[in-house]
Amino acid sequence: DIQLTQSPSSLSASVGDRVTISCRASEDIRSCLNWYQQRPGKAPKLLIYAASGLQSGVPSRFSGSESGTEFTLTISSLQPEDFATYYCHQSYSTPQTFGQGTKLEIK
Amino acid sequence: QVRLQESGPGLVKPSETLSLTCTVSGGSISSHYWTWIRQPPGKGLEWIGHIYYSGSTNYNPSLKSRITISVDTSKIQFSLRMTSVTAADTAVYYCARASPSGGWLYYFDYWGRGTLVTVSS
Predict the structure, then answer these.
(1) Cβ neighbours of B104 in A, within 8 Å
(2) What pLDDT score was predicted for residue B102?
(3) What gap in Å lies between CA B12 and CA B10, rounded to an integer?
(4) Checking DSSP bridges between strand A10-13 and strand A102-106, what pairing results, if any?
(5) What's CA B54's distance to the chain center, in Å?
(6) Strand partners, B4
(7) Are B107 and A34 inside 8 Å of each other by CB?
(8) Does residue B8 sit at the A interface (CB-CB below 8 Å)?
(9) Beta-sheet pairing, B115-119 with B11-12
C-alpha cells in the first residue's frame, strides 16, 4: 500500500496566518493527490484535486503544490471557518489511501 | 446539485452482515465511480471500494473477502454488503462520488452525510 504521511499532525494558528500542511507519499503517485477539509461531525469536502487544481467554489486562499513525492496544502490567510482537519488522498494505486490527518486549531 | 444519502441499520451484531444503500439524486449515475469510505470514531478515513456504473468493482484488499458493492442503475442506488462484522467495523460509513480526471486520478467531489454503524451485541 502507498503510505501518505502528513505533517504536522496538529497545528495551532491564528486568524490571518499563512499555514502549510505537508503530505509525503511513500512512492511516486504521478500527481494523483487530492486534499479534503473535514469539519467536526461533517463529511469531508474536496478542496484541491490533482495536487494543484482548485475545486469549484473553494476560496482562492487555498492552494496546492507538489515536488516529487512531497505535496503541500497552503492556506494564505486563515479564516475562522478554516479550523478543521485536513486529509490528503491518493488515487494512483489500489488501495486508495488517505493521510492520517492534520488538525488545525485556533491559537 | 448531486446529493447522496446513506441508509441502513445503525446497529449490527458481531458476526452478522452489514448492509448499506446510497441513493443518488440530482445527477446521472453514469461515467463516475461510486465509492464507500469509512471512518472509525475519532480516527482517519479508509477507502473501502468502488463500483463503476457498468458494474465493474475495485475493493480494498484488506476487506475484499468480506465485501460486495453493487449498483442498481434503475433506482440510481449503490450498496455495500460486509459480512462477518466485528467491533473493528464500527465506523461512520460515507458514500461518495469519485470523478475520474485522466489516468489514475479520481477525486471525491460529492459525499453523503455519513451514517454511523455500531457493531455490538
Answers:
(1) 30, 32, 91-93
(2) 80
(3) 7
(4) parallel
(5) 16
(6) B24
(7) yes
(8) no
(9) parallel
The span from the CA of B34 to the CA of B55, in Å, is 10
Q: Can you tell me the mean pLDDT for A52-77?
A: 97
- Show which of residues 34-53 on chain B sit within 8 Å of chain A, judged by CB atoms: 44-47
B101 interaction partners in chain A (CB closer than 8 Å): 49-50
Rounded to 5°, angle at Cα B119 from B117 and B121:
135
A103 touches chain B (CB under 8 A): no
Helix (H, G, I), strand (E, B) or coil at A82: helix
CA dist A7 to A4, A37, B70, B95, Å? 10, 15, 36, 27
Q: What is the residue whose three cell numbers read 452489514?
A: B18
pLDDT at B73 over 90: no
pLDDT tens-place string over residues A10-46? 999 999 999 999 999 999 999 999 999 999 999 999 9
CA dihedral for A28, B42, B114, A21, sign (positive or negative): negative
Average pLDDT over residues A63-87: 97
Cα–Cα distance for residue pair B53/A61, rounded to 1 Å: 35
The CA–CA distances, whole Å, from A34 to A29, A71, A74, B39 equal 11, 9, 13, 18
CA distances in angstroms from B32 to A3, A13, A82, B98, B106, listed in the order given: 25, 38, 29, 6, 9
State CA B88 to chain mean position distance.
17
Would you call the peptide bond into B100 cis, given omega within 30 degrees of 0 as the criterion? no
Q: Pull the grid cell for residue B23.
A: 441513493
Q: Inspect the interface and report whether the beta carbons of B108 and A46 lie closer than 8 Å.
A: yes
Nearest by Cα to A34 from A22, A21, A46:
A46
